[in-house]
# Entry
Amino acid sequence: MGHEHHHGAAIGHARTRHRWRLAAALALVGAFLGVELAVGLLSGSLALLSDAGHMAADAVTLVTALVATRVAGRSEPTGRRTYGSYRAEVFASGFAVLVMLGVAVSIVSEAVERLDRTAVEIATGPMMVVGGIGLCVNIAAMLLLRSGASESLNVKGAYLEVVADTAGSVGVVVAAALVAATGMALWDTLVAVAIGCFVVVRAVGLGRQVWDVLAQHAPAGIDPRAVSADLASIEGVQEVHDVHLWTLTSGMHVATVHLVTDDLARGHAVLDRARQLLRDRHGIAHATLQVEPADHTGCHELGW
# Structure
């Protein structure tokens, strides 16, 4: 049996490299949230209120992401969590999806309800100014999180929430301009609906990635058939079976494989080559490999 551990590097980037980015983005969003909410209520702009809702969702998502990085990196004294708490970051991403969907549903519901009301007065001046400031805040937060989004699903959840809010701020400015130019408050409602639909699309995309991890699907970009074929090509390997590939958390791909060899005396060399192949060619740093003699039949007795 052979295995290799590289958990420290994966969790290290989540705890140190990106935590300060999450904290800085949270400070920016939190500082502006109250201002936007107050002006949204005073101006009567649904688009501005929807953007404030986005910012509130941003704040919640960022707090959750920060907490998840701490939980994922804590020690495990009980010994029962044999994979540690790394999945906390994935659960935080799933929470971000739920928050985004909740905000989108509330925005669209309010927009539909407003269509049945009489004319709504909207103060477009304050709406445009606050929308513009909110856009700058969101762009700054988005730039802070962008580099980490490609490495951590947790950071990606927070990043996509901020991206959606950035689009919302653009929508607020556009809605203010259209209402001021035409005098039709309907533009404010339509922009709010468009923002809600945009958020749903982003949330569904992230939700699929979260589901793939929680359902233990093969990591994106890794073909199990190609992995099996590469392992079967190793000198001394007669058969490859029970290949299982999944992602524990962002940057931590895991594999378990059974290798049937023609000569157990060469098992050590087979293990070394298989580990190197999985690490270098497929990006799988943690692999548990079982070497079996050709006449071993126990594994084939499993019914699942």
The chain has nine helices and four strands. The first strand starts at residue 2 and ends at 3. The radius of gyration is 25 Å. Residues 224-301 form a domain with the Alpha-Beta Plaits fold (CATH 3.30.70.1350).
